């Protein structure tokens, strides 16, 4: 099954890549690797999940936001590799979670991105990962996700 067909089956449409909020590009390809800049949970330029885990946002809301970040990451990927069927492997995902010092469920939040990538790409979507707690993120976002992807 093609990746586009899998996305349709899952009810996912990949948007246009978000415009960077500072001096960077959404993705850079070097050789077979694509480094995808940190993606926020934006829809049509509007932040969908704001605040701190452990205070303002619950794990389910943040996991949904991380899923949205992964979708936006695929949009960024398409700026340098338009054919998602050429993805050989999602190599690494790093999830940043804006949270209180006491919050320790960062991995559960970032599962929103990881589980989506595995649902789309199967075994090729299984990846190494880091989940990091942060005091704050750009625009007050609750979650940010970056990825490294190997392509053909």
How is the topology of this model organized?
Elements (H helix, E strand, L loop, with lengths): L2 H7 L17 E4 L2 E7 L2 E2 L2 E2 L11 H19 L9 E12 L7 H16 L6 E7 L8 E9 L1
Parallel strand pairs: 5-6
Antiparallel strand pairs: 1-2, 2-7, 3-4, 5-7
Account of the protein in words:
The chain has helices at residues 3-9, 59-77, 106-121, and strands spanning 27-30, 33-39, 42-43, 46-47, 87-98, 128-134, 143-151. With 152 residues, the chain is α+β, with helices and mostly antiparallel strands. The chain is globular. A 5-stranded mixed beta sheet has the order 1-2-7-5-6. The chain has a two-stranded antiparallel ribbon with strand order 3-4.
Offer a few descriptive terms:
152 residues, alpha+beta, 60s Ribosomal Protein L30, Chain: A, 3 helices, 7 strands
């Amino acid at each position: 099954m093609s990746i586009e067909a899998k996305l349709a089956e899952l009810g996912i449409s990949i948007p246009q890549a978000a415009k960077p909020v500072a001096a960077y590009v959404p993705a850079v390809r070097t050789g077979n690797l694509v480094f995808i800049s940190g993606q926020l949970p934006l829809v049509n330029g509007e932040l969908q999940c704001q605040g701190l885990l452990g205070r303002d946002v619950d794990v389910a809301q943040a996991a949904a936001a991380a899923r949205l970040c992964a979708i936006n990451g695929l949009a960024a990927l398409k700026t340098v590799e338009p054919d998602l069927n050429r993805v050989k492997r999602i190599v690494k995902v790093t999830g940043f979670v804006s949270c209180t010092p006491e919050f320790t469920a960062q991995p559960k939040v970032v599962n929103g991105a990881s589980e989506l990538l595995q649902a789309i790409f199967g075994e090729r979507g299984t990846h190494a990962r880091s989940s990091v707690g942060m005091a704050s993120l750009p625009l007050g976002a609750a979650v940010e996700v970056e990825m490294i992807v190997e392509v053909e």
